Amino acid sequence: MNICVVGAGAIGGWVAAKLALAGKEVSVLARGDTLRLVHAEGLRLEENGEEFVASVESSNDCAALGPQDVLFVAVKAPALPPLASEIRPLIGSQTTIVPMLNGVPWWFVEGMQLKSVDPQGSIAAALPFEQVIGCVVHASCHRSAPNRIHVKHAEKLIIGEPGGAETSKRLGRLFALLDEAGLKPDVTGNVRRAIWYKLWGNATINPLSALTRATCDHILADAECRAWMLEGMAELAAIGALVGCPISESGEDRMAVTARLGAFKTSMLQDVEAGRPIELEALVGAPREIARARGIATPALDRLYGVTKLMAETLGLG
After folding, report:
1. Which among 110, 186, 267, 315 is most buried, taking Cβ atoms within 10 Å?
2. Catalytic residue among 115, 156, 184, 198
3. Range(s) of the chain covered by CATH 1.10.1040.10
4. What are 150's strand-pairing partners?
5. Is 198 a catalytic residue?
6. Considering the domain 195-315, what is its CATH architecture?
7. Residue 126: pLDDT band with limits 50, 70, 90
8. What is the dihedral sign for C-alpha 310, 311, 316, 318?
9. Helix (H) or strand (E) segment spanning residue 252
10. Spatial CA neighbour of 78 closest among 252, 223, 271
11. Is pTM beyond 0.90 here?
12. Per-residue pLDDT reduced to its tens digit, 294-306
């Protein structure tokens, strides 16, 4: 089985390393220092106090790697539109494509091009919907060097057919692959709902952390931030109810779960601090676009989107 990971960052590097350590033939598409160090030293994974070295093939040439059996796409959402056409040589007619992205993916609403995340339609054109398996990552990893990944916690990978089928042969094969590598897969018959549930918890606290530069414990302790978050979460729940992704918890219940994680930096705050483009469109822009198409007002999300977009433009973060 040929397996390729596009984007050997924290999550992509973790997945590639775990698969390689399980004896799978894995390649990574990488550039610059990541390519150089992975080629020279392999991927170095620190997990549960132990360090492992995984040997993977590395290249910056998609044509040289060729069509894959399984393709994991683990780049940040803003990077995917310009990259999509470049990775087409990795996709054959039988390739299973597993996007591992934060927020709303391009394929989320059947029959609707989400211009917030796929403005030119380049992703949909390059990554055929019928070959996609949905994936929701519940893990926290970070890199201390381009080829060194530290796993803070790895809860599970939720996978499912985008069309809502309970199971399929390809889903079973993917589950077995991830399970053998110790990546804790969990199959769902409604992966879209799993995507929306994670979004519901992340879409407000991520931008607020980027705006305030505060860790999550401080944001949750601030009465005005909590009120803004609860307004936005109520709007997200209303959108979800109309697209088959109902939320059964209260916003306060979800905040209590986040509070147990303590003082941590969201991925968006980490991107701001590193000077990287932020995933604003996938986390907030796409829900607003879906809401407009359904005639739902989202004043709290609109305010959050507007001020965060201005911050990103001012800092040159896209």
Report:
1. 267
2. 198
3. 195-315
4. 46, 142
5. yes
6. Orthogonal Bundle (1.10)
7. very high
8. negative
9. helix 251-259
10. 271
11. yes
12. 999 999 999 999 9
